[in-house]
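Contributing new records

If you add data, match the layout below exactly. Sequence lines come first and carry their own label; structure lines follow with theirs. Keep one chain per record. Anything else will be rejected by the validation script.
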Amino acid sequence: MDELLSNSIDDNENNPHMLQVLEALKQASHDLQHVHHHHSNSNSPSIKALLELQTESDNILSTDPNLSTLSQHLTRLKSLVDTLNRSNGHLSLRSFLTRRVSKHSISRVAGSIETEIQAWIHRESVETLARTLRDPNHNPDELVTLLTQFGERVSHGFNREFQDLVLKFKIFASLENILFDPKCCKRVREHAGEAVAALIQFNKDVFVGQVSMGPTIIALMGMCTLHSIEVLCSLIRLIRSPFVDEIESNGEIPKIFALLNSNELQIRVLALDCVLEIGYFGRKETVDAMMKEGLVKKLVELQKSEVGGDLIELNNDEGEEREKEEEGGKGKRENKHKRFLEKHPFASCVARFAVQLEIGEGLRQREKRAFKIEILTRVREASVSDAEYATIVAEILWGSSL
């Protein structure tokens, strides 16, 4: 550890091992808070690792204002360890109390050290990501790794200091530049899109205002990959009606509809997810645009496919067993539906779309009623038999039970 620590500190801006060292030191400080008392001495691997950092404090910690607090905590740790070691081997009451107090204090200082090292990790990772995002000659594999690590940190939940770093280094704008750049490899652009969505989920109030919705939609639809469509669905759920409005105004509805004809099943499934989300948040103009593309006819076709089916028939198959369900039975039935949908993702997709319109946020009540009538009419036109029509209509009318 000491050699790796020294090498990393000597070139802390560019050394790829820097974050690895910091993570190890963070783990050491975390372990020190939970070790058994008899390990709380200078021979503890955790303490040795942190004291090695303390010996380097004059080199970098004392000259970096961001690390001055960490330097103070490390100095305090060394003092406590020295006090603990002096009391070891003595059987007096005073020595016993000194050991108890020192061990408790070491645990508390270790917690403060862990917090400061985590802040250091945030600074290093954001600075490295910002530098790499702006490098026109970046290594794609390295950038994908950095974006993955960034997404993992964002997913841990809100952190004010981390957000300040993201804003300071203009990470959001750099991510969009990568996402919009057709010369950049698809894999990097996909991960940039995922990072954009992750930041919006991290703090929607701050980052929704920064997203360039039109260009983002065009970039994601232009890639037309599993990851890009997943990001598109995420952004619909996160930004809601304003994002759906932008999709419609940019003329992307036909492109999303076209994905329902993809040769790749997962693309078709994700396209249906987008359609359902758009149905929930979309206003009249957007739903009209999907209807004009022949959406209902396509959904009927998908529902009749091998990976389609009818959930209402699944309900009917339960028969009297459903009536005899005890408490918790509803949850079991929902799980059964979920398992069925995993194998038959287009099951009851017409009714699922109708339900999205019915319970959604984008339409007025009179618009919802009008679209329900229109869906029933289009189902009649798309059905090849009265039985098929009757089944789909029953699912639409009893959609809330699906």
